[in-house]
UniProtKB/TrEMBL annotation:
Keywords linked to the UniProt accession: Signal
Lineage, uppermost ranks: Bacteria, Bacillati, Actinomycetota, Actinomycetes, Micrococcales
Signal peptide range: 1-25
Top-rank taxon: Bacteria
Keyword Signal part of the UniProt annotation: yes
Protein name: Uncharacterized protein
Length: 446
């Protein structure tokens, strides 16, 4: 799609019960939903935890290399009234994958059931020394409401927390409120290193407020890349809408002393005034600086809808050559293998940086447009780090190339970058024009 210039442990210490009480009677049905609309959950739902005593005999243990488990995700989702969500109503879930107690370096993949190990894709990459790391991605579910989690290499406990789901187009219960998703180029709107707020830690909270240029905006979810920068101790971040002072029993990002790390986060927000919204961040341990780049939002407006595709390793510079230090690559997404259509607005997947001899970051954005101040992944020298990503396709007027993804290596040494595509966001031309005009502006914190 040709674009107008864009604008700008599981708190792993906590163990949530997996067993849920029986579902209540479903409310009256409504008309069929538009396929690919988003349904945010009021609080994350833990659907899998290898530390849980509720698992079958012999399964409450760290996963091992080449071990796969099928997880029944949809049966644990509930509507606002507590009714069960049916598998045929869900096409994909927004899920946070957390690894804990790592004892051998490797990676974990959370993916569509029965896609196998080819092509090999990863969700969380981890070292051996007892790391705790989290990453949020969009994962298609099978017709029976399940997905697969695989320990591709290494050994770790694995925790899955669902934060929202996408509709299939089937008829929904009347109390399900759906949203469409606004995906934009990344833009840095909060940085505690430079705005006077300073680092956050020691179980303290900070409410972060932003506004949009549309006073009638009805936003329920902020989509961001959240980074813990220069942490002075180990800890984790939690994020929620701040309607209560009690955070959810899950984390959105786990960090270690001295290591910058980023994660894609879908955080519920609350409306505090016309066009003004707020969410709350809590940091345990640390303290750490917090950097936030906006990449979109979800709400009741005309925007984009999600379509799952078979997971596909679209970019892997190990097949060619490493991306040089401080250099940029633009690459077109083909329409082959149903990866893209004429109405594709953004590609969804997982970005991985395989660092060389220097710490740094990678950035994915609309190819052909000026590179924004933002980051997708952050990593230390010699480490592999992944983050979920939704990237708007761009147009380069100097070359007349369309459907471009831009990739930047922001480190001081050559590094490999990977992008595994698992879906796309579709938008009509009118919706795309509207999304290109939307923006956020930071207005304060408390």
């Amino acid at each position: 799609m040709k674009l107008s210039p864009a604008r700008f442990c599981s708190a792993v210490a906590c163990t949530a019960a997996l067993a849920l009480s029986g579902g209540v009677a479903a409310p009256a049905a409504r008309a069929a939903a538009t396929p690919g609309e988003y349904v945010p959950l009021p609080s994350p739902t833990r659907v899998f935890d290898t530390r849980s005593a509720s698992l079958a005999a012999g399964e409450a243990r760290p996963m091992r290399t080449d071990e796969s488990r099928t997880v029944d995700v949809v049966s644990r989702l509930r509507t606002a009234s507590g009714a069960t969500v049916a598998p045929d109503q869900v096409s994909a879930v927004m899920v946070t994958t957390t690894v804990a107690n790592t004892s051998a370096a490797g990676y974990v993949t959370t993916q569509q059931k029965n896609t196998g190990r080819s092509p090999a894709v990863s969700t969380v990459n981890f070292p051996a020394d007892n790391h705790q790391l989290a990453n949020t991605t969009i994962v298609p579910v099978a017709a029976d409401g399940t997905l697969d989690v695989t320990e591709g290499a290494g050994s770790s406990n694995v925790i899955l927390d669902v934060v929202g789901w996408f509709t299939s187009g089937a008829t929904l219960p009347a109390d399900v409120v759906t949203s469409q998703v606004d995906i934009t180029d990344p833009a840095r709107f909060y940085d505690s290193r430079f705005n006077g707020d300073g680092p956050l830690g020691g179980d303290r909270t900070r409410a972060i407020r932003f506004e949009t240029p549309f006073s009638d905006a009805d936003i329920n979810t902020a989509l961001v890349q959240m980074t813990a920068a220069s942490p002075t101790g180990n800890g984790y971040l939690q994020a929620w809408d701040g309607r209560t002072t009690t955070p959810p029993p899950t984390s959105v990002l786990n960090f270690r002393r001295g290591e910058n790390i980023a994660s894609f986060v879908a955080v519920p927000v609350r409306k505090v005034a016309a066009g003004v919204f707020e969410f709350t961040v809590r940091a345990t341990g640390g303290p750490t600086h917090i950097v936030i780049d906006s990449v979109g939002d979800a709400g009741r407006f005309n925007a984009a809808t999600y379509r799952p595709i078979t997971p596909w390793r679209f970019l892997d510079t190990r097949r060619t050559s490493a991306l040089k230090a401080r250099s940029t690559l633009s690459i077109a997404v083909p329409s082959a293998a149903n990866a893209r259509t004429a109405n594709t607005w953004a590609m969804v997947g997982n970005a991985t940086m395989i660092a060389g001899s220097s710490s740094g970051h990678s950035l994915f954005w609309s190819g052909g447009l000026p590179r924004p101040i933002a980051s997708t992944t952050n990593t230390m020298a010699g480490q592999n780090r992944a983050s979920g990503a939704a990237v708007v396709l761009g147009y380069d007027p100097t070359t007349a190339q369309n459907n471009l993804l831009g990739v930047h290596n922001g480190s001081g040494a050559a590094a490999h970058v990977l992008f595994d595509i698992s879906g796309r966001f579709e938008a009509s031309p009118a919706a795309g024009a509207a999304m290109a005009k939307r923006s956020w502006r930071y207005v304060g914190s408390r």
